[in-house]
Amino acid sequence: MREVYPGIYTFPICLPNSPLREIHSYIIRGEERSLVIDTGYNHPESLADMEAGLAVLGISIQSVDLVITHLHADHSGLATYFYDRGARIFAGKVDGDLFNAMASGEYWKMLESFKTLYGISDQEMAIEDNPGYRFCLDRAVPFQVLEIGSHFQFGNFDFEILDLIGHTPGHIGLYDRDKQILFSADTVLDPITPNITFWGWEYPNILKTYMETLGRLRKMPKITLFPGHRKVIDDHVSRIDQLIDHHFERMQEILDAIGIDEKVTVRDVSARIKWRIKADSWDQFPKPQKWFASGETMAHLDYLVESGHLSMTLNKGVLYFKKLQNCISKG
């Protein structure tokens, strides 16, 4: 348990069998009710950690409300548990609808369709391998919409709701201008990099959109970021610069991995580039992580198509990419 700001506490929630290991849930302690920001998986170990953390603070589960910053199961998985015990659930409209679609199953039908686009077979990975599928909330829950630009007041905190689209289509942040703090969840992480994945043609070039979000954050005055994983970030400008550099380096690696006059699939490229995964080949890659790796590859390929570095064609439901330029630069 750690007090990161007067009245704001954080403690780790276990994420079983995940490379992330844990998520930081944040608690703002109130006089009558307290506020929880993000939950952990819908899993007994995550729930046990949540209940233990609240107990340390002397907070009853029946006396809390919940803000969900984005749809991923490690942030929303216990929403049903909180709702059933009287919590009001707050979320952005886009991701709120999507985490409810996860519970109903509609979301997973969309994700399943991406495998064909990527050129990945059913034997290589299945929806059942995705941790989001296994650990999402039990059923859809009613939620109160936090509109972008609106203010959400809790105790002596006055949070402006920021649009942090990129890591997910409707990721939000809670920003207290006077106190110079921002609950940024998975938009900026240190030392790991947030996964930026393909969300369908409804959200074209999501990587570019994400970097535009980073650009807006970079222009903000000095703030302390409270992220969903790893360490609190005091120098947001330096970390944002590192993240932007990382993605351009990643795109150059992708261009280098594609031969002249070669047509490649998302799977082809995913298997050629480097990942921080203990696996000697794509065949040995953990199936749950193939979902994240292929989606991230697609997001970078989509950027390179829009920037004129690659061409993209669709043949029998599979996307193929061909290199048009050898180098990419931030300029």
Automatic annotation (TrEMBL):
<dbReference type="Pfam" id="PF00753">
    <property type="entry name" value="Lactamase_B"/>
</dbReference>
<dbReference type="InterPro" id="IPR036866">
    <property type="entry name" value="RibonucZ/Hydroxyglut_hydro"/>
</dbReference>
<dbReference type="InterPro" id="IPR001279">
    <property type="entry name" value="Metallo-B-lactamas"/>
</dbReference>
<dbReference type="InterPro" id="IPR036388">
    <property type="entry name" value="WH-like_DNA-bd_sf"/>
</dbReference>
<dbReference type="InterPro" id="IPR050662">
    <property type="entry name" value="Sec-metab_biosynth-thioest"/>
</dbReference>
<protein>
    <submittedName>
        <fullName>MBL fold metallo-hydrolase</fullName>
    </submittedName>
</protein>
<feature type="domain" description="Metallo-beta-lactamase">
    <location>
        <begin position="22"/>
        <end position="229"/>
    </location>
</feature>
